[in-house]
Amino acid sequence: MSKSAGCCKRFLHYAFDYETPKTLVIPSLGVGFVFRFTQFLVVMYVVGYVCVVQKAYQDTDTVISTVTTKVKGFAFTNTSDTEPRFWDVADYIIPPQSDHSFFVLTNMVVTPKQVQSHCPELPSPSTTCVDDCNCVEGRSDPRGNGIQTGLCENYSTTARTCEVLSWCPLEIDTKLPEHALLVAAENFTVLIKNSITYPKFNFHRRNILPHVNSSYLKRCEFSRLTDPHCPIFRLKHIVSEAGEDFQDMAVKGGVLGILIDWSCDLDWWAGECLPKYSFRRLDNKHPVNNVAPGYNFRFAKYYKAADGEETRTLIKAYGIRFDVIVFGTAGRFSIVPTIVNLGAALSFLSLVPVVADWFLVTCSRKRDLYSRHKTTHLTEDADSLFSVIV
Amino acid sequence: MSKSAGCCKRFLHYAFDYETPKTLVIPSLGVGFVFRFTQFLVVMYVVGYVCVVQKAYQDTDTVISTVTTKVKGFAFTNTSDTEPRFWDVADYIIPPQSDHSFFVLTNMVVTPKQVQSHCPELPSPSTTCVDDCNCVEGRSDPRGNGIQTGLCENYSTTARTCEVLSWCPLEIDTKLPEHALLVAAENFTVLIKNSITYPKFNFHRRNILPHVNSSYLKRCEFSRLTDPHCPIFRLKHIVSEAGEDFQDMAVKGGVLGILIDWSCDLDWWAGECLPKYSFRRLDNKHPVNNVAPGYNFRFAKYYKAADGEETRTLIKAYGIRFDVIVFGTAGRFSIVPTIVNLGAALSFLSLVPVVADWFLVTCSRKRDLYSRHKTTHLTEDADSLFSVIV
Amino acid sequence: MSKSAGCCKRFLHYAFDYETPKTLVIPSLGVGFVFRFTQFLVVMYVVGYVCVVQKAYQDTDTVISTVTTKVKGFAFTNTSDTEPRFWDVADYIIPPQSDHSFFVLTNMVVTPKQVQSHCPELPSPSTTCVDDCNCVEGRSDPRGNGIQTGLCENYSTTARTCEVLSWCPLEIDTKLPEHALLVAAENFTVLIKNSITYPKFNFHRRNILPHVNSSYLKRCEFSRLTDPHCPIFRLKHIVSEAGEDFQDMAVKGGVLGILIDWSCDLDWWAGECLPKYSFRRLDNKHPVNNVAPGYNFRFAKYYKAADGEETRTLIKAYGIRFDVIVFGTAGRFSIVPTIVNLGAALSFLSLVPVVADWFLVTCSRKRDLYSRHKTTHLTEDADSLFSVIV
User: Fold this and answer.
1) Which amino acid positions bind ATP, per UniProt (chains A, B, C) (predicted)?
2) Given A20, A26, A66, which is nearest B353 (Cβ)?
3) CATH number for domain B21-57+334-374, candidates 1.10.3470, 3.30.1450, 1.10.287, 3.10.620
4) What is this model's ipTM?
């Protein structure tokens, strides 16, 4: 044999000699049963819990969504406070379009014919005055409504308040109607069109399902039991599903969430991926811990008189903002999470012999016999190592 | 030796005696090859697939983004139906600002000089009447346009309909121009500024890249081939990249997604993290399964006449809503997913001896010899255990 | 014994014979220490890093949120350029309501009394002309302001420009006030109500915390040190926390992010899940790489004169858009990630004997003795396998 051949042989031995543990086969029903049972538990956990319940073999992606809404309905108001008036979509939806929410006006405080001028402040402890000395020109109280001019004027026959520079007459927002003006809004309907994408899976879907036809859409209305896939919702129904009363909520306004859950298992036939609707009030209705309860905002319509003077109608709009919140996670089989979870489970399989061995040498009847055959104690002068220390 | 010393020694033996499997080295090329090859497969899987392809060693975060848009362009319309009119940004972008979408008006039905009054309904099977008996005072048909006054009036020389209380004259939205009014909108451009954050990695970036200078931005226009990083888009180009025709889409409106994908691998030089633009129509253009195809909404401009009467111009606005949808996941090396994935892969390495042992005792030529040396059967009276049962 | 009994016995042996590795116990302090120390390292890693630091035992969910904002404050402007004017919320918040951002007007270029007519272009190299031959009827320059009529008119005593059909007079937006008009906006306050949900954990929370009462909310103002949970923010404070100067930013506008981080560990008492506020400018303030620096948009107020002619006031609004960006990930103990991470860690425990064995046969003093007892070399005529090849 040449030298290189010997070297090569050593390499082959090094690389390809296979080192395998010597094993002892023990025909013990008890130990065998413990071993198989432990194995069974681990396999059951992997199959039953990780795979079936938690779907840990799936890769996941979160939803991307677009929403358009279209409200339908009209109302006629005729209360003692206000003139008779007819309301349609262009009047009560503010702003006219938005991307995933819409606001329905239900109540309001209107202050018409405001112009830039001066007028006495609304009476309050900080604004009442006796004479001009109580008012400071140029002062602006954050809780007030304008810049003081330094004069003290008669607000009414009984009260004198500092005059302010502001849009006059001032808004008196304490006179909010107790019954919402547009209570008829409860019968308005809204069509919600929602289109979603799971970009990782290149999966697109709409909430108007393929099997839904045009004539059905013209007459249907969402109902959890009879029409769970109709995308047309009656506002009253939304509010009552959220556990609220429309009449109550309409007075001071509020924020209501229309939640669309697109959680899907894309391993199954994709047609099974359906939106699930739920409704929840998002602001706090309880007056405790609450400044400015409900939901309102101010906006103005500006007019120009013939002489060029600008007047405005200030509207403090109370109403319900409906937020369409789309969420969801889709899962689809993917090799990486599968491998990771299987690998983690395999680790537990490697615990099985540890359990069985422990049972073998401590609990089985013939433990001494098994121990003697399984374990060799290397005793010859090895003890000296320990003896040195002790 | 004292008693405590003996106790201490027993503890040392318990804690530090090392129990290692007895092994058998088998110089078989076949078995060795099977062993090494299986090992190689597992290592290749870990390195090649988990690390390189799936980047399983990375921790991930999803993008947080802000968008501002600015449309430029003007148009002149002069059709037989409408007066000649010049349109600029303040006229056709509604509402004037929004956070991640913008609406470009392309077509409309204008109903000027509406006032709160009464007028006969638009003719339809449910509104035509013969005399006042067909109309019920106070009835409001959801498909109608107002509250019935109980009178039956002449709508035209041929048709009589119930009179309603509403904004009159009523809108006739069936007369939608067949050619979009603002077809010139296709040449408008939009500048999209997008700033993103990956909070977990404290990574911020904008879609106006560092190497882009101001003079380039003044003249550039997005083009997938020549200017892939220019944030200025021609509307026509967006629509055609989405596979649609601007002229068609402009008539009835629609929703178009401008998708910006910020998926990034932050392990590499961060400068390589670039936005990828794509475009997709988000509403369903096919008329089937579609109520209210396209995209439109109504809004009104309110005017006050000299005598204080409020009039409005109702506009049913058709147009394209462009939704800027920003998404993406960034990954960066992190020790936890690395350890988890390596651990899972190691589990598979622990399977390798199982495979090799199985090959050893079933397929190799000298399986009897190997089995005899590897495995000891504990037979002495152990069988009795089974014999008891059988 | 019958045949079936023998068959059954073979099956029992097959299923329940327990095969366990023969082991060798080595009483070596060195090897034992290496073994225990390596074990200790792995356990420390699992307990310390994976569990405590990275909370890898938790399942996570991302936040879903709703925001409402309400700005308070008023201002009075009286500069040489403009008429004295009083501003309140309805004037400076545009649009009046939005879902997670609000725009505060701080500066503007107003062009009142625009009507559809024709007027000479603003002078620029491309619009100046000598006579009508320089102007082409119907041409619309994208950088211009209207459709050319083909006439060359006197813009001023020194300049002649092409006449255009447009809203006239044209806006001259180069005359932006150097000091922001509404500098007083820095003292406006905003109340941000934010309600969040982690749908996977059915966890809801608001940024107005349970222990906050109504009287506190009426007077508090956010301050990182003294009032970290007050949801009322002074605009000046927001801007300065973002490292910007309000006066500077107000001139040309900008986009400012109010980031609310709801990252929570839901394993602890849920009351500890608190919002963390931070502020960051989102647009690029540096003029380099910047077309249209700052943030502005155009909108118009439309008026109708007594004779029915429509006029408008065009406003180029500069201001600060505050984007409320809510993000966060909640974690809660879940069995699947726990199992996966423990499993992965167990894999590393299975590496420990490999390390100890390697130490045993290469570094320990009695390595020859140990090797001899541990490993059996199967040499009898096995070498022939290799000999055949070499």
Assistant:
1) 70-72, 189, 296-298, 316
2) A20
3) 1.10.287
4) 0.82
